Amino acid sequence: MSTSAGLCDLECCDCGNRAKEQPLSIQLVALTIDEVRQLLKDPSISTLRDLAITAGAPHPEIVYTSALERHSAGELWFWCAPRLFSLASENLIVGSGCFKNSPRDGAVEIGCGVAESYTGRNIATEGVKLLVVEGFSKPDVTAITAETATWNSASQRVLEKASFIRTGSRVDDEDGPVITWRLDRAI
Fold first, then answer.
1. How confident is the model at residue 10 (pLDDT cuts 50, 70, 90)?
2. CA distance 72 to 174
3. Is pLDDT at 17 greater than 80 in this prediction?
4. Could you give the CA distance from residue 15 to residue 17 in angstroms, rounded to a whole number?
5. What CA–CA distance (Å, rounded) separates 60 from 136?
6. Within 10 Å of residue 156's Cβ, how many Cβ atoms?
């Protein structure tokens, strides 16, 4: 296998020793309230909407629970609905993302994850870009924010490739030291 000098743009490494992979085409699948309830009731579900679910791809239970609680408290389902990352070419769910809040002062925070067996293929980057498009489809959203653990260089690279800018850092009560990120709506 030949290698090239410089950095590769895979989200899993900065080694420069891996061939550049083409981004895979993914789609966002916004879950319905009933689907979230179904996944909470039976986390072992292996297919959803005729899409196979890769182990490690769906959201953790806390995301589903939070989505239902936020919606019950009056938030629009658009902002609460977890999104699954579907690898279109294989009818396969390989990751997930969500809006962690409704717009606050024009900003919404996103989060995402990809099944370990699918990292390093630009899926997280493409998923983040799709979440950004969805967020900015609402006129009251002027910025998308995110946070990454200080040790999570792969997630930091995902946000950099999606044009986010580091805005600072803070210590989160649950996650410890995190880097804060922001992407403002283009004018």
1. very low
2. 24
3. no
4. 5
5. 25
6. 19
DSSP string of 7-33? Answer: ----TT---S-SPPPPPPPEEEEEPPH
Domains and their CATH numbers in the chain: 26-184 (3.40.630.30)
- Which residues pair with residue 93 across a beta bridge? 53, 86
Q: Quick check: 28 and 134 in contact, CB under 8 A?
A: yes
The DSSP line for 115-152 is -GGGTTSSHHHHHHHHHHHHHHTSTT--EEEEEEETT-
Question: What's the one-letter identity of residue 125?
Answer: T
Residue 5, exposed/middle/buried by CB under 10 A (0-12, 13-18, 19+)?
exposed
The residue-averaged pLDDT of 174-185 equals: 95
Q: Each residue of 72-102: pLDDT tens digit?
A: 999 999 999 999 999 988 999 999 999 999 9
**pTM of the entire structure?**
0.85
In the numeric block, which tokens belong to residue 128?
A: 């983040």
Phi-psi region of 63 (alpha: psi -120 to 50; beta: other; left: phi over 0): alpha
